[in-house]
Design goal:
The protein has about 60 residues and is mainly α. Helices cover about 75% and strands about 0% of the residues. The model has no long low-confidence stretch (mean pLDDT about 85).
Length: about 60
């Protein structure tokens, strides 16, 4: 009986490490992008809210 059957390639430690490092970095990058986009959306929502508030003040009764 063969130690590694022909249909299963031998797993190279360097290839496993490289794939693992790639997956980890991709995960970090994806999380970083998600947080950055969330920050931009929050900033845009805050600006839109402030603009709406300023518009309401302009349209309000004159003192």
């Amino acid at each position: 009986m063969l130690a590694n059957p022909p249909h299963q390639p031998q797993l190279d430690p360097l290839a496993l490490y490289s794939k693992s490092l790639h997956d980890y970095t991709l995960q970090l990058w994806t999380e970083s992008r998600r947080l950055a986009e969330e920050k931009v959306r929050a900033k845009a929502a805050k600006k839109q809210e402030e603009d709406a508030r300023m518009g309401a003040r302009k349209d309000g009764p004159a003192s």
